[in-house]
Design a protein that fits this description.
about 140 residues; mainly alpha; elongated
Amino acid sequence: MVRRWYWKVYLAVMVVLTAAAIGVSLYFRQEAASYYGAADWASLPMYVVQLAGLFGFIYGRRIGAPLLWKLVFAATILEQAWMVYETASDVGPLSVDDLPIIAAMAAIGAVIYLPLLIALFIYAFRSPALWAGRLSERA
């Protein structure tokens, strides 16, 4: 299963974004420890696991088991739903002037995370040849 170049570019972009998120979280450790809860810090290892799944999907490698990636896919959806809820609840009353900013944030979030969700879904649910170990169907 040979993946196209754009998946590899997407993986590189996600690695950079994940490293930046971890770096920023560590840099602002004191402020983050008092403001954010443990759930926000627990999401950092989840990002690394998502990258491992993306790598396995792109390069046709078996990492872990399909059940693990089904759980990672479900956890990724729950994480995204929580982020949308948390962002919406922190905003407060909205005005018409806020709508373009919110729409832009939603569009950027979809561009960033939709390919990840698609890759994790295919990796977990739609790759029986990979998980069965039939190499002839992967090429």
